[in-house]
Amino acid sequence: MTDSTVAIFPGSLPSHKQDTVYFDREELSRILGLYGRMVAAGEWRDYAIDMNREIAVFSIFRRTSEVPLYRIVKSPKLAQKQGAYTIYGLGGQILKRGHELEAALRILERKLIKAIEG
């Protein structure tokens, strides 16, 4: 090797966007719309977004220091089977699965209606 030779090691470069599962603009807008309404109702206070090669996760917290109250998970590998979207509850139980985000979020929207009425 000379002084001008560049050696590239596997894994040393950042991964490409197509390697990461993420929520697109429409999905994120829909999730954040529901999140904003629940914050206004005093039910939720914080969120976190995590992404990797297999799934994207939108975690919802009542308090920052707690474990997530709900997790909205996008898993494209399950799109042909149970559906790409899964809503998990506090204990990790599956509350709803769906091929469409809108349908999966309905379970959380019902909780918004109960929070407003109650």
TrEMBL record:
Protein name as catalogued: DUF2794 domain-containing protein
InterPro entries in the record: DUF2794
